[in-house]
């Protein structure tokens, strides 16, 4: 069976670790230097529940609450990974704004999304609680994970979950919390 291609936009406020998560997932390395991303696309094959997927990750430029939502992020995108930093209340608020803009753009009630609290390794600087993240994701009917791109913690889980959320939205998986990562 040929791999299914799925396109996922990775979005969030600037310097929350969108590129670091993508590079850690695709290349297995942590890039410490910060160069603001214009836009990058990464591809990687991934197996979820026995099915091969060709993932195309669109690593977007950092958004803020005033950014116009770029139309290209609503066309041919199957799902979204919205990233905030657990050390930044502002990035958490921006994730909510981006989510609302995606819904407006798509004209849908729900979209396949994984909310990611990144920088879990900086727990001493945490300002956004795990509960806050989980509650927000629940209100969206979205998946939720906390990760550390630096420590490679739960990074591939993000993209496996994104695929599962997309398949569920497409009616290819039963709804509910049945989560298994192969």
UniProtKB/TrEMBL annotation:
Its main location: endoplasmic reticulum. One of its GO terms (molecular function) is GTP binding. It is found in: Endoplasmic reticulum membrane. Keywords: GTP-binding, Hydrolase, Lipoprotein, Magnesium, Membrane, Metal-binding, Methylation, Nucleotide-binding, Prenylation. Pfam families: Ras. It comes from the Eukaryota. Gene3D superfamilies: P-loop containing nucleotide triphosphate hydrolases. GO terms for cellular component: endoplasmic reticulum membrane. It catalyses: GTP + H2O = GDP + phosphate + H(+). One of its GO terms (biological process) is signal transduction. InterPro entries: P-loop_NTPase, Small_GTP-bd, Small_GTPase, Small_GTPase_Ras-type. SMART domains: RAB, RAS, RHO. It is a lipid-anchor. The keyword Hydrolase applies. CDD domains: RheB (cd04137). PROSITE patterns: RAB, RAS, RHO. NCBIfam families: small_GTP (TIGR00231). Belongs to the small GTPase superfamily. Rheb family. PANTHER family: RAS, DI-RAS, AND RHEB FAMILY MEMBERS OF SMALL GTPASE SUPERFAMILY. This is GTP-binding protein Rheb. It comes from Chionoecetes opilio.
């Amino acid at each position: 069976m040929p791999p299914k291609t799925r396109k996922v936009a990775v979005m969030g406020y600037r310097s929350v670790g969108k590129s670091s998560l993508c590079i850690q997932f695709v290349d297995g390395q942590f890039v410490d230097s910060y160069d603001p991303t214009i836009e990058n696309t990464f591809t990687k094959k991934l197996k979820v529940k026995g099915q091969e997927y060709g993932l195309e990750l669109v690593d977007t430029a950092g958004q803020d609450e005033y950014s116009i939502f770029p139309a290209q992020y609503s066309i041919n995108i199957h799902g979204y990974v919205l990233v905030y930093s657990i050390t930044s209340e502002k990035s958490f608020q921006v994730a909510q704004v981006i989510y609302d803009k995606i819904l407006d753009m798509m004209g849908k009630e729900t979209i396949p999304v994984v909310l990611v609290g990144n920088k879990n390794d900086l727990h001493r600087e945490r300002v956004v609680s795990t509960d806050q993240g989980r509650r927000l994701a629940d209100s969206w009917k979205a998946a939720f994970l906390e990760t550390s791109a630096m420590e490679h913690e739960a990074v591939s889980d993000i993209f496996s979950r994104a695929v599962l959320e997309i398949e569920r939205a497409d009616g290819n998986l039963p709804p509910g919390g049945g989560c298994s990562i192969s």
